[in-house]
Amino acid sequence: MEILYSVQSTDWLYAGLVFLARLTDVSLGTLRTIAIVHGRTFMSFWLGFVESAIWLAVVSTIVQTVHQQPLLGIIYAFGFASGNLVGIKIEQFIAMGHLILRIITRNNSEEIASKIRQRGHGVTTFAGEGKSGPVTELYVVCRRRDLKRLLSMVLALDSEAFYVTEQAGSVSNVYRPIMQPSTGWRAILKKK
After folding, report:
1. Whole-angstrom Cα distance, residue 154 to residue 117?
2. Hey, which CATH number is domain 98-185, 2.30.36.70, 3.30.70.120, 1.10.357.10, 3.40.470.10?
């Protein structure tokens, strides 16, 4: 506790800047890594450039002062950990990339396929055999941001449907879904 009382207000400001800089550079690093996995070279380049510039500025100042103010080391580490969380949350919000959605159902397979197609997605169906008898597998490639809407529609038609998703590396042709009316904060921007 003695360390906390001896820290001046300018030191707290400095610690806050270190935290924010570290939070920013690690968040950018998380997004850069995901962009690399998705093959987005231009985005990866610029994210890496900004990330390393911030990192270099923070590390060079921390190395010079951490022995005088050990609290900065803890703040630096806390900024790193927080940056991972923030980067993941940003990536989940952006939802880059495509997924392969496999739906296995015993009921309503034709209706499910029809509804998915009406939304503008391509569907390929396969007949199969499950533990309890014949099943149909529906194979859909979709954007990650469309997954929740597709799954809610599928589960509304067949609550017992089994589904699996996996990352799609590269996709030759993805159907663009028919745009749904905007809701939430985006709807405000569209009002005339």
Report:
1. 12
2. 3.30.70.120
